[in-house]
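This entry is listed below:
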Amino acid sequence: MRESFYTESPIRRIVPGPRADQEAYSTFRDSLPTALAPRSVGVRVRQRGLAWGAPAARRNFIVLEYSLKNMTADTLKPLYAGIFTDWDLPGETGRNLARYDSVRHLGYCYDPLATRLYAGVQVLGRGPAGVYAIDNNAAAGTPIYFRDGFSPAEKYLALSDGFGRAHRSAGADPAGADVSQVLSTQVPRLAPGDSATVAFAVLAAPTLAELQTAADAATAAYVPSQPLAAAPATTTTWQAYPNPSTGLVQVVLPRGFGAATAQVLNALGQEVARQPLGATGGELRLATLAVGVYTLRISGASGSLVRRLVRE
């Protein structure tokens, strides 16, 4: 909503990645709400980019996944997340149409008179999908008026008011317009310290049919990065830090958990490291593992604990 985000860790590219042919990771966050900045949300965002070179059906899109962690002491309800695109397609940038495919949750844009490229953003996952199409040159008095900037209130409107049918298109056929779109989704509630994942695909193709095929392929390709379900354990807190790690990870087990075994699994669920732990935990040495995202599973007589682990 405000330009208050700052980088915590720069973008790092991994080729190949554990989930795709190319992956990129970074972390950013915004400031906590204060009396001087009450509109700050107070979230930390871990961003992941996924791209594939094969099969051919996956070449026309990339996936952007965002893990949102509530850093405040209050429950965020609801929380909106989205992607804003100011479409200026090759050719006449002021002659574009913005449209929406409700079946695929796909907002897209094209030039109706010289159609060489279709570009779009798709909401992935099971959450609700919203779209707010904007005429960048709309007259004063419209809900979103760009001539005087893009205010926090207008940004919130674009994120939150696109879940009906009123804002699905911008630009009249065949004249077109200078258009933008916001594709968004909603997290109903996010408790303090909790995280939620949202994802989008960014797509481009020479025809609408090919764009829709790419959207279908993106839906099929995207598997959310969620930790495996854990069996009940005797306590509620444990630690594995630092995470991300460059090779050494300190594990602190809950009191009374007992001796355990640590397993590290890759994206395919294959075990790539195993190490015994004492009753209070221990240090994992993972320097030999390739950079990527893994699952750390701690198993013992008290149950099992599971957490996503990033090796940088």
Summary: Residues 67 and 197 are 4 Å apart (CA to CA).
